[in-house]
Amino acid sequence: MSYQTGNQFDYLPRLHFWPTGTVDLDKFKQAEILDYKKQIKENRYWMSNFIRSFNNSSNPEDILEVEAKINAVTLAQVQEVAKKYLSKDKIIGVLMPE
């Protein structure tokens, strides 16, 4: 994203007010689709999808719509999620144990 330099906490509130930009969103989509295309070549990806579909009583054919779902994400949706989850009273942290 365009504002990733510096403190990440300074960047997060900007998502509320400014779209991240179509360039950033397109880069994200391309990376996700590339990752998806790599994963579908592996048996464990298909097996984990079938197991997840069985456990959740969902349609295993949904895996074939992943690329369309990624491409359907809009800047407005990103901003809506940012407003919902990235407010001043919430902090998102990622724990990375060694």
Could you walk me through the main structural features you see in this protein, from its secondary elements to its overall organization?
The chain is built from six helices and no strands. It is mainly alpha-helical and 98 residues long. The protein is extended and about 40 Å long. It has one domain (8-84).
Average pLDDT confidence is: 80
| Overall radius of gyration | 17 Å
Largest sheet, strands/sense/barrel: none
Q: Give the low-pLDDT segments.
A: 1-5
How many domains make up the 3D coordinates?
1
- Envelope shape: extended
The count of DSSP E runs of length 2 or more, i.e. the number of strands, is: 0
Tally of alpha and pi helices: 6
Helix content: 55-70%
Class computed from helices, strands and strand pairing: mainly alpha
Distance between the termini: 27 Å
Q: What is the H/E order?
A: HHHHHH
Residue share in β-strands: under 5%
